[in-house]
Design goal:
By secondary structure, the protein is mostly helical. It contains four helices and no strands.
Length: 164
């Protein structure tokens, strides 16, 4: 496999991550609006991106392994950085640029996902608080006869025999 094929795979990788980043930005707006139907659709769309990214990642790993083994460097760990060090200049600069672009997009995606997680957490806290205010609080749960007065149990007989 040539470095040009690896470059094409990395370009697809960056493109998919940028699409996922756009979707994450849209998800932030949907979370702010509270549109659960749109959020559900976005989660389904994310799953498609994630599946495609996993497939491209598998292909990228295989491509890196083939390039490293084709260049006769089987002792090195098959990483993209090791591959970049072994290829010649036109491909090297393209691979470095794509690696850096991918790192930037992944970092942005991580930040947006953290923001979305915080928004979801706040929404859940609001829902729980609202439910606590709406739902009636249960009265004291106790085990006395319904017709007994609310006074203390001093002098009353117990259901359990404490001498046993």
């Amino acid at each position: 496999m040539s470095a040009k094929q690896l470059i094409e795979l990395l370009e697809k990788h960056v493109k998919l991550h940028k699409g996922l980043l756009d979707l994450a930005n849209k998800k932030t707006e949907v979370l702010k609006k509270g549109d659960m139907e749109a959020l559900s659709e976005m989660v389904k769309e994310e799953q498609k991106y994630i599946a495609a990214i996993k497939q491209i990642e598998k292909e990228r790993i295989l491509a890196v392994e083939k390039i490293i083994s084709a260049l006769g460097h089987t002792q090195q760990e098959p990483t993209l950085t090791a591959c970049i060090e072994l290829v010649n200049e036109p491909e090297r600069s393209a691979l470095e640029r794509l690696r850096d672009n991918l790192a930037v997009v992944v970092a942005e995606l991580k930040n947006i996902n953290e923001l979305n997680q915080q928004l979801l957490h706040q929404s859940l806290q609001f829902v729980n608080m609202t439910l606590d205010m709406i739902m009636p609080q249960p009265k004291e749960v106790n085990y006395r006869k319904p017709n007994m007065a609310t006074s203390s149990y001093e002098g009353s007989s117990s259901l359990f025999d404490s001498k046993a």
